[in-house]
Amino acid sequence: HRTPGPVDLRHLNQWWTWTPGACWNHPRGPRSSLLNRERHPVVHIAFEDAATYADWAGLALPTEAEWEIAARGGRPRATYTWGDEPERPGRRLANYWHGEFPYLPDTGYGQTAPVGSFPPNDYGLFDMAGNVWEWTTDWYVGDHSAESCCATDSYDPNQPQFAIPRKVIKGGSFLCADSYCMRYRPASRRPQMVDTGMSHIGFRCVKRPT
Fold first, then answer.
1. How confident is the model over 191-210, as a mean pLDDT?
2. Spatial distance between the Cα atoms of 11 and 134, rounded to a whole number of angstroms
3. Whole-number CA gyration radius for the chain
4. What is the C-alpha to C-alpha distance for residues 45 and 22, in angstroms, rounded to an integer?
5. Closest by alpha carbon to 173, among 201, 205, 198?
6. Which stretch of DSSP H or E encloses residue 50?
7. What is the pLDDT of residues 101-153, one digit of tens each?
8. 139 bridge partner residues
9. Does an H or E element contain 72, and which?
10. What CA–CA distance (Å, rounded) separates 99 from 116?
11. Quick one: which of 8, 44, 80, 103 is 20 to 30 A from 1 by CA?
């Protein structure tokens, strides 16, 4: 949620609120709906939700490597999905936080946007930077170059009270601010507990040759 003014960015609970009843078809709480949000990415999706949908559709969730290759759009060493230069004022390239974080977004930012509101990358893919984080099938370990073989490798030793495995999510979201993090870059990643959906986490599927 937006705060009334500046807050200590070291404490996530300053701008996160648990909202009972929030789910994919009530994305802002039990009194909200999908009216006028048909083209927005689906949110509040746990990993099993996304994997089950992909299987039903005859598709799959991407690995972290597949996702990152797709996000780079043929620019293997580029800093951003669109190249090496940061977004310039007046040139809208991705739905990440513009404005004062987390209390005063610029007009048109601070929430999800309809898919296709920003230019695609060189592979024709929309929102590979920003809008919502996206699930991958990789278990999370701290070393980007390492591969985790199983769920138990992905527990967070800093949170021993939560014995819940974590998958890698990619892409950043509308809540990524340059003053706080720049995780809308293709190389960025973060762990997400598999049982937890949030207002800024969604997914996309891949189609592999049979």
1. 94
2. 23
3. 17
4. 11
5. 201
6. helix 47-56
7. 988 999 999 999 999 999 999 999 999 999 999 999 999 987 666 666 677 77
8. 167
9. helix 64-72
10. 21
11. 80
